[in-house]
Amino acid sequence: MRLRDLTPAERRAVEERRAEVRAALAGVDPAWRPDAAAIDEAPFLDDWSVRNYPGTDRPCIDAYCWGHPLHGDTILKTSVIVQQGPGYAIVESGKVYLLGSPSPEPEARSAILSGRRGKGRPIDAPAPEDEADTGFKVG
């Protein structure tokens, strides 16, 4: 599934978050601090929730992701989290992620992806206005 493109305002918000993460990581022990290039290339996760990595009791993040170098803009489950702070997470693979807003309903995405959301609407039926995605949140 490909996500919609971010608007210019959303891209500015992501860059503001990137600057906040740089500032937050400046105080972290250099042994645990990613380099500037890792932060510059960090994918952005929004509507995220922490879950157990499959088959373990270790945490990972399930989210909508923009800018992943391999997967592009999609729904993503990260590898296991090794460090998390204000606006960022670093996972076992060494990848840094910028974090937007946590999911207000973490079970909703899982239900949709697993087919548990019920019968749904006919494929040719338009989405009701009250269900339309009203935008992106950073936060």
UniProtKB/TrEMBL annotation:
<feature type="region of interest" description="Disordered">
    <location>
        <begin position="102"/>
        <end position="139"/>
    </location>
</feature>
<protein>
    <submittedName>
        <fullName>Uncharacterized protein</fullName>
    </submittedName>
</protein>
